[in-house]
Specification:
7 strands; 33% strand; Aminopeptidase; alpha+beta; 30% helix; 177 residues
Length: 177
């Protein structure tokens, strides 16, 4: 496994496939089938372009990393700091996304991605915050086993419906692994 920047079309293509497959597996029974079916696993060029535009840059500081195995990105993480979500404090980074293709769950890719993403934060960042669907037991178990603590609730709109979310925080320091 190699952790590398998501910075070209092929690495982003792998991230999109991992994202789509992870959504379909983790959110089955949580989100409606029609929502899950709309999440792409084989992106058209316009979808690749939109994802490339989402990558961190000077105006949106952060890091986008992929876990490459056998020449293909099998998972990715986006960590951002500065202007992020309302629940992310000024001395915190937001763990915006971490997804691993379900065929690679349990192999350490997610832990390595989150750890490397956290390691890339500026020295003045004191904690990492994230938001997850409250019914996402797979994600919640992953975060809790890596030292993230429940710190609140919120809601998010997906499709036509609204879903309860949970907010997690983890102070920096110590080890994830």
């Amino acid at each position: 496994m190699e952790i590398r920047s998501l910075d070209d079309r092929e690495s982003v293509r792998g991230a999109i496939e991992a994202h789509g497959q992870a959504w379909r597996a983790a959110y089955a029974g949580v989100l409606p089938d029609e929502v899950l079916e709309r999440v792409t696993v084989d992106p058209e060029p316009a979808v690749l372009d939109r994802w490339l535009d989402r990558l961190p840059d000077r105006d949106s500081p952060g890091v986008a990393l992929g876990a490459q195995v056998g020449g293909t990105v099998r998972g990715y993480v986006f960590v951002r700091w500065g202007e992020t979500k309302p629940f992310v404090g000024s001395s915190e980074a937001g763990l915006k996304e971490v997804y691993v293709h379900p065929d690679w769950w349990g192999g350490g890719l997610g832990t390595e991605l989150v750890g490397t993403g956290i390691d890339a934060t500026p020295s003045d960042i004191e904690a990492v915050a994230l938001e997850a669907l409250a019914e996402n037991e797979i994600g919640r178990s992953f975060y809790e086993s890596r030292g993230f603590a429940l710190d609140g609730h919120s809601e998010i709109a997906i499709g036509e419906d609204s879903y309860e979310t949970v907010i997690y925080r983890r102070p920096l320091g110590g080890t994830l692994r």
